[in-house]
């Protein structure tokens, strides 16, 4: 989502199903996302109508003033500075031994527009806020929206070898109709600050979607390639110097309308189930609104081939990357220092949803947070190439202690007994559910952040090979939005009798990874800081619970 004016954009999204589509600046029409990107029958993110048993409410405790809970801010997620707003992350770039990332930031929300704020990290886990790198409204072209940055190793743009070049959308309201045009900014201090060069990709005659430039060097054709969000398509452009851009092709789908935002195009090895590679494929990833097909805002992708000019999808049917309600404007990058840079990629997204982003209360002084960084691998599953998304190994470094839980058999009326010190406000919960008979019990329900009658529930419908998140009971004063209240679900194959679950919970969010990234659900929650209890139960049979670890 590239809009600098978050309130207006959020209203458009929320009203999409109630009003006629308006062709105004930044409008995203309701996208009828492809069937596998949202149809409830195939695990694309349908609704679950029957949540599991309600856990017994646990009395809330008085919060202890520790680093985890004192401020109410996320412990291990990037969040907006106090009083501010953040949304879209901007693709990280490796500079020396560190990563530099930016995100859209508005210090005066809900007015004023966005600028690029900068964070750095040695490991993609521990991020340090470095302040604003590209300030808003320092030129006549307005505030600064989404884009991408690249290191111009060969000095193609003429600003010096190794200069960091950012291409970003600007509204350009005063540029003779060049609304939503691409501006070039350059940095000679590793992305700490940028100087404005010019509008290098104007949008004549303006006023139509033309935003979110994502740029990469395509070695086989020795030129830069840009993907750009346009009305009804992703446009592909090429350039020898990051300044002069020529249209190459467009990716369209008769099943997807409106605007596909925040696109990224990248290659990966395609792995078979046995770990061998089956060649390389390209992935086109976009953000969009799937409400027309029963989903919500999210991140969808297609797998196919790219010849330097055009992308051809293997199938017209895309897939959701994360089936939760809060993983949008995702960016993707690879680590050039990896022994095999095509083995995996990395991604991070904005944890919110335009259906309610502007309604969310901010009791702890911040508006907006990002997800944790995840690893992406492309693997053939059920005969089709699919992205598997998992937390990176370094993420465990943020936790200071690990409490193991005992292996236990649980059954209806005999719930899992957690260790006495297993309360979690911000941490990681890992466990494995093992089938103990010929068939699974009807379901298992893991509740986190319980207390004062509130809880967030992860339901595993083991017989039906599905899981869901229930968050409408997570806390008081939720936004008045159906997208918040609906339980989001995902398909996951439990046919081998094992369900491996990893849950990352923080002050205001939950991220669930099941069976090594076969299914992922990410959502905001509004749990009170005092809510920290865990509960695990089953019905219709028994389960063996093993490999329990609580990391805080």
Can you describe this structure in just a few lines?
It is built from two helices and 33 strands. It has helices spanning about 5-15, 480-485, and strands spanning about 85-95, 100-105, 115-120, 130-135, 145-150, 165-170, 180-185, 195-200, 210-220, 225-230, 235-240, 245-250, 260-270, 275-290, 295-305, 310-315, 320, 330-335, 345-350, 375-380, 385-390, 400-405, 410, 425-435, 445-450, 455-460, 465-470, 490, 500-505, 510-515, 520-525, 535-540, 540-550.
CATH level-two architecture of the largest domain: 5 Propeller
Give the proportion of residues in helices: under 10%
Shape: globular
Q: For the CA atoms, what is the radius of gyration? A: 23 Å
- How many β-strand stretches? 33
CATH topology of the largest domain: Tachylectin-2, Chain A
Separation of the first and last Cα atoms: 33 Å
């Amino acid at each position: 989502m590239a809009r600098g004016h978050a309130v207006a954009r959020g209203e458009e999204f929320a009203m999409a199903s109630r009003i006629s589509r308006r062709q105004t600046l930044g409008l995203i029409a309701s996208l009828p996302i492809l069937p596998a990107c949202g149809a409830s029958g195939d695990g694309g993110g349908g609704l679950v109508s029957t949540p599991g048993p309600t856990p017994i409410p646990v009395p809330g405790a008085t919060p202890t003033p520790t680093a985890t809970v004192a401020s109410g801010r996320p412990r291990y997620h990037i969040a907006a500075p106090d009083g501010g707003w953040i949304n879209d992350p901007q693709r990280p770039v490796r500079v020396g031994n560190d990563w530099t990332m930016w995100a859209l930031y508005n210090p005066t929300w809900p007015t004023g527009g966005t600028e690029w704020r900068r964070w750095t990290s040695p490991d993609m886990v521990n991020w340090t806020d470095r302040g604003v790198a590209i300030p808003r409204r320092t030129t006549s072209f307005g505030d600064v929206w989404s884009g991408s940055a690249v290191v111009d190793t060969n000095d193609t743009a003429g600003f010096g070898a190794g200069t960091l070049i950012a291409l970003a959308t600007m509204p350009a309201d005063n540029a003779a109709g060049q609304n939503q045009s691409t501006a070039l900014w350059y940095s000679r201090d590793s992305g700490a600050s940028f100087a404005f060069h010019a509008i290098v990709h104007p949008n004549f005659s303006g006023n139509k979607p033309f935003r979110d430039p994502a740029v990469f060097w395509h070695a086989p054709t020795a030129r830069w390639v840009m993907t750009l969000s346009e009305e009804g398509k992703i446009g592909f452009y090429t350039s020898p110097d990051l300044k002069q851009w020529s249209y190459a092709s467009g990716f369209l789908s008769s099943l997807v309308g409106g605007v596909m935002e925040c696109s990224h195009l990248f290659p990966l090895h395609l792995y078979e189930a046995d770990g061998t590679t089956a060649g390389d494929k390209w992935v086109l990833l976009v953000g969009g609104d799937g409400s027309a097909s029963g989903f919500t805002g999210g991140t969808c992708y297609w797998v196919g081939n790219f010849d330097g000019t055009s992308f051809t999808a293997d199938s017209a049917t895309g897939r959701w990357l994360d089936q939760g309600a809060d993983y949008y404007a995702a960016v993707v990058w690879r680590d050039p220092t990896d022994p095999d840079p095509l083995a995996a990629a990395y991604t991070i997204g904005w944890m919110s949803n335009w259906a309610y982003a502007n309604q969310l209360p901010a009791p702890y002084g911040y508006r907006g947070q990002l997800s944790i960084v995840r690893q992406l691998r492309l693997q053939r599953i059920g005969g089709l190439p699919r992205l598997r998304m998992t937390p990176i190994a370094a993420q465990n470094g943020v936790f200071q202690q690990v409490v193991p839980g005992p292996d236990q058999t649980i059954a209806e009326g005999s719930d899992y007994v957690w260790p006495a010190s297993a309360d979690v406000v911000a941490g990681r919960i890992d466990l494995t559910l093992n089938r103990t008979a010929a068939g699974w019990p009807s379901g298992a329900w893991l509740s986190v952040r319980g207390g004062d009658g509130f809880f967030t529930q992860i339901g595993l419908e083991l017989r039906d090979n599905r899981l869901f998140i229930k968050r409408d009971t997570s806390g008081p004063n939720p936004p008045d939005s159906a997208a918040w209240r609906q339980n989001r679900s995902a398909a996951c194959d439990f046919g081998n009798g094992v369900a491996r679950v990893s849950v990352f919970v923080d002050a205001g969010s939950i991220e669930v990874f099941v069976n090594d990234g076969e299914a992922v659900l990410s959502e905001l929650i509004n749990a009170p800081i005092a809510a920290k209890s865990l509960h695990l139960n089953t019905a219709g049979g028994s389960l063996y619970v093993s490999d329990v670890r609580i990391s805080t």
